[in-house]
Amino acid sequence: MRKVFLCVILLTGFTYHQGYSQDSTKTLFKLPKLNTIGFYIAPEFQYGQLKNNFTDFGGLSGMILFNKSFGIGFSMYKSLDRGYAPSGVSPLVLHASYAGLKLEYTLNPDNAIHISFPLTIGGGNASLDSASYVSRIPVRDSVGRRLPTLKPRVPQNNFFLIQPGVQLEANLFKAVKLYAGVNYRFVLADKLTTLPMNTMQGFSADIGVKIGLFGIPLHKTMQ
Predict the structure, then answer these.
(1) ∠ Cα 41 42 48 (to 5°)
(2) Alpha helices, DSSP H only, in the chain?
(3) CA 161 to CA 101: how far, in whole Å?
(4) Confidence grade of residue 131 (pLDDT, cut at 50, 70, 90)
(5) Which one, of 10, 1, 14, 47, lies nearest residue 208 by Cα?
(6) How far apart are CA 29 and CA 93, in angstroms?
(7) E strands within 109-222?
(8) With contact defined as beta carbons under 8 Å apart, do 163 and 187 qualify?
(9) Which among 76, 71, 32, 72 is positioned nearest to 58, based on CA atoms?
(10) Model pTM greater than 0.85?
(11) Residue 159 bridge partners (DSSP)
(12) Is the confidence at residue 206, as pLDDT, over 70?
């Protein structure tokens, strides 16, 4: 019985010592305590460079927030003008889209007006086609049967891109933020790309709205 009692005392002391040692260990980096979590979706309008001229883009982001400041998620953008034919490719029409991982850091998110720094890392593609090669009116034979139409294959040009930016945000309501900012797309071309890198590289300005829950507490507050 004494041996069992002695083993229990020794085991308790060893466990306490190990726990104390773990708590007192000093490290070079310390992760911040996670106090809140959130999420939002953000429809966005962007006016940006595409083949040296500017055109309209539509975008959408979905993000998860940690401590209201750090966000990680996904974003995607697509050119909206289906007849966009900038100098250098006209009379051909240029379409483009890109998507990727999005990171975001926000300074002082509880302030009514604050600044955020988004970063998108991903891929994009651009394609050239004729403005009139596809008829939108179905072709039918003499008895009214619809005839099959052949659509030419449009070569895709793939790019790797990094887009950093800065945004000014306003907290309109607890669940709604309005933002506007500027970005720059840095682009690397794929080996099989026939279009130059400056096709998708360039500046853009954006405006959008974030809708979501930005600060869900993870710990109970004392009354």
Answers:
(1) 150
(2) 2-23
(3) 11
(4) low
(5) 47
(6) 51
(7) 113-129, 156-173, 176-189, 202-217
(8) no
(9) 76
(10) no
(11) 124, 189
(12) yes
Query: How far is the C-alpha of 52 from the C-alpha of 13, rounded, in Å?
Result: 71
- Is the pLDDT at 95 greater than 80? The verdict is yes
Do 86 and 52 form a contact (C-beta atoms < 8 A)? Answer: yes
- Which residues, 6 or more positions from 174, have their beta carbon under 8 angstroms from its beta carbon? 214
Cα 166 → chain centroid: 14
Minimal CA–CA distance to 187: which of 207, 206, 167, 164? 164
Percent of the chain exceeding pLDDT 70 equals 73
Q: Is the peptide bond before 91 cis (omega within 30 degrees of 0)?
A: yes
Mean pLDDT computed over every residue of the chain: 82
The position carrying tokens 């992760």 is 31
- 3-class secondary-structure state, position 8: helix
DSSP three-state, residue 19: helix
| Cα distance between residue 164 and residue 129, in whole Å | 30
The per-residue pLDDT for range 42-80, each reduced to its tens digit, is 999 999 999 989 999 999 999 999 999 999 999 999 999
List CB contacts of 51: < 8 A, sequence separation 6 or more: 86, 87, 88, 89, 94, 198, 199
Instruction: Name residues whose C-beta falls within 8 Å of residue 30's C-beta, 6 or more positions apart in sequence.
Output: none
- Tell me what pLDDT residue 111 has: 95
